[in-house]
Amino acid sequence: MPWGVVGHQAAIEALGREIKRGAVSHAYLLTGLARIGKSTLALALAQALNCDEPSPPCRQCRSCRLIARGTHPDVRTYELREGKSKISFKEVDDLQREAQLRPFEGRYKVYLILDAELFSATAANQLLKTLEEPPASVVLILTASDAEALLPTIVSRCRHLRLRPVPEAEIRQHLEAERQLEPEQARLIARLAGGRVGWALDAATDPSLLDERAARLADLRQLLDGDRLARLRVSRALAERWSAKADTVREALRAWISWWHDLSLVQAGLEEQVLNVDERPALHREAGRFDQMAGSRAVRRLEQALDDLDRNVNARLALDVALLGLPAPSARP
Known about the structure:
Layout lengths: L8 H13 L5 E5 L6 H13 L11 H8 L5 E4 L10 H11 L9 E5 L7 H12 L5 E7 L7 H5 L2 E4 L5 H10 L5 H11 L3 H9 L2 H17 L3 H17 L1 H22 L12 H8 L6 H17 L4 H10 L9
Helix pairs in contact: 1-2, 2-3, 4-5, 7-8, 8-9, 10-12, 11-12, 11-15, 12-13, 12-14, 14-15
């Protein structure tokens, strides 16, 4: 497992070649789906840049171990603070001033900026000053879900690496061989991960992730048999949660999208492509209760809701429209 990272072999090989040639960029941007492994690769790159051994990162030398523990004096992580909605101007200003100092013990001062799309407008503009005139010994590593969420001037000054979903077979093999999961459990988690290796590794050690997903699907099935008032109650609860725990709402809507997509696959006789493999019996029961286009209509509604929420459309309105517009079953099972 190169660099201690599951998947992303192409990105690792490209970065390894640059380090070997001494052609290290002053800034890198890693983009990809949430929990696809961006932060893990960013940390491994920080280790590779300051590793003491000939084939970095060894993950065993003092430098690699300090970076892994978050205690290396020349490697700092900036991310959204609890209770905040943006990475502030002050944090970037502090980074800039510190970046002018020489490394304390490593070859590079490395700054990991996680979820860079969460910069405030003033912080993003301030970061440009460092990107335009970077000190020779400084490397910035930014992560973001999508480059389009950042200022084009920031993207253009970074070495941009797009992380692709990790193949299901690769995730499954790792879960069985390294995490000692039973084949059926490894298969379920690898399928549900959808290429998001970070989510898969978390789910392998935290059963609550699968429990939460099962609860979301149970909520959906109950919702479908509810009347208009019941749907509005669920919508209002999600809208209230959006302001404090937006990620939990996103995960709920994505779980519902995957269920509706699977329903369409079962109706089309493509059962082997189903994502929620443990839901197959329930999907077969539900398939006869909905018309053949119900799944695609529901997916469009829910994806539109996600897009509206991310564009700061009123959460209550966006969710009301989505949930009231979900197909209703034509008959009880």
